[in-house]
Amino acid sequence: MRHAASLRRLRRGEAAHRRRPARGRRGGAAVRGLTSANVTMDLPHHGYRASKQRGRPAPMGGESVLFDDTSTSASQGYYTPGYNMAAPSNDMQAGVNNLFTDPMANAAMMYGSSIANQGKDMVNKEISRFMSVNKLKYFFAVDTRYVLRKLMILMFPYTHQDWEVRYHRDTPLTPRQDVNAPDLYIPTMAFITYVLLAGMALGIQKRFSPEVLGLCASTALVWIIIEVLVMLLSLYLLTVHSDLSTFDLIAYSGYKYVGMIFTMLCGLLFGSDGYFVALAWSSCALMFFIVRSLKMKILTSLASDSMATGSSAKPQVRMYITVATAIFQPVIIYWLTSHLVR
Asked: What percent of the residues of the chain are helix, what percent strand, and what percent coil, each to the nearest 5?
């Protein structure tokens, strides 16, 4: 019996010894759970489940942060510390208002505008001494009908009968109202066309260069200036009274460019034979046109001669001037076109 009781006690001790590690494990787990609960309760709560904060590396010493926090500065009324975007102060607005209400500033502005107007008047006066703008506008008062009729008269003047220039209250009618009135539109356009055609002719012959084209244009312009100056000097020295102005002489001298264009075109299309035929036709037509146009301007004097001895000589002198002007036109046409057509 004693032996059996001792055996049972021994077995109970072994069972108790086996149950002790389990209790230790449960105790360790309880201790760990309690510690975790304490840590969780110590963390601050912000309306969401707290999690473990991750460490952020601090910037290196001496290096600037790439982006600055501007949220606080924006709330203070400016974007960056260097630029103040606030509204202008009342002192600045008052200074601007005083600038426009100051009588001294107004007087200075009025004085400056008056000086500008005086300078403009002086420039217009100096220009009017050499050239009248109103007269220049008169010579460009043309239309399509006038241009077509004038070109037909320049090329076929033999069929035109009435060559008298019409007046209205001692003022000549504009070119669009009178086909016999001289104009500067056709001479100007004909001069530009002549220069372009000369460039094309030189290009066809493989002799084109900007220097040669500029020489052709300047030579043609210089010939007109020389011709007008000779005409003015002749009328002045021979005391011929006429109503010819400088613009009139420029217009009559510039009409030769129409015949020059016709001559060059015929020379380029039909060779040298066509060139000389067109030269003869355009020269005769231009001479006839010049004589009939200047007849009412030079041969008919607007003022009676005061000297009886000169009354018989002056019509003859005027005829010489008219004929010399007409004969001089074919010479210029040939001189300015012969080297362009080969």
From this structure: 70, 0, 30
Query: Nearest Cα to 215, choosing from 195, 235, 241, 200?
Result: 195
Beta partners for 19? Answer: none
- For residue 58, pLDDT over 70 is answered with no
pLDDT tens, position by position, 229-245:
999 898 888 877 777 88
Q: How far apart are CA 131 and CA 266, in angstroms?
A: 37
Cα torsion 244, 250, 251, 253: sign? positive
Question: CA 130 to CA 84: how far, in whole Å?
Answer: 60
- Angle (CA) 206 208 209, round 5°: 140
Rounded CA gap, 176 and 182, in Å?
10
Q: What is the DSSP string of 201-260?
A: HHHHTT---HHHHHHHHHHHHHHHHHHHHHHHHHHHHTT------HHHHHHHHHTHHHHH
DSSP 94-153: HHHHHHHH-HHHHHHHHHHHHHHHHHHHHHHHHHHHH--HHHHHHHT---HHHHHHHHHH
Tell me the pTM: 0.61
Distance in angstroms (rounded) separating the CA atoms of residues 85 and 74: 10
Q: How far apart are CA 245 and CA 183, in angstroms?
A: 12
pLDDT band at 170 (very low <50, low <70, confident <90, very high): confident
Higher pLDDT, 16 or 320: 320
286, 288, 217, 211: which is closest to 256 by C-alpha?
286
